[in-house]
Every structure is written in C-alpha cells, then in structure tokens.
Amino acid sequence: MKLQNYSDVLTVKDIQEILSISKIKAYELAKSGAFHTVRVGPLIKIPKQSFLQWLNGPNN
Fold first, then answer.
1. What is the Cα 15 distance to its own chain's centre?
2. 58: helix, strand or coil
3. CA-to-CA distance for 22 and 41, rounded, in angstroms?
C-alpha cells in the first residue's frame, strides 16, 4: 500500500507493513522514541507526519 493511502494517524501494524518488519521490531521502534507516539489506553498511535520526518531523515 502506498503511504498516501494510510490515515494521518498510524498504528504499529501500519509501521510494520510500511517498513516490512516484524511485529516485535515495529513495537520496539515505536517505543524507542525515534518519532512521536501517543498512547491511547493500550494502543500506540503515531502521527504520520512525525513518522515520515523520521523516515526521510533530518535533511528533508
């Protein structure tokens, strides 16, 4: 799926799909502080813009 087809708020499952990584690695990455996350009860939500800034690097 193309990035523009994802919601403005991503889930850990979305991160897993986008990066083609395991569920465990996706949770480790989400909890690493590499990009902004929001806890909603037991769920971890990731603003797509924050994730894309991380993915594209600091120079973009």
1. 4
2. coil
3. 22
Concatenate the DSSP letters of all residues of 1-60 into one string.
--GGGS-SEEEHHHHHHHHT--HHHHHHHHHTTSS--EEETTEEEEEHHHHHHHHH-TT-
Beta carbons of 6 and 14 less than 8 angstroms apart: yes
Burial of 47 (0-12, 13-18, 19+ CB in 10 A): middle
pLDDT digits (tens, 9 = 90+) for 1-53: 788 899 999 999 999 999 999 999 999 999 999 999 999 999 999 999 999 99
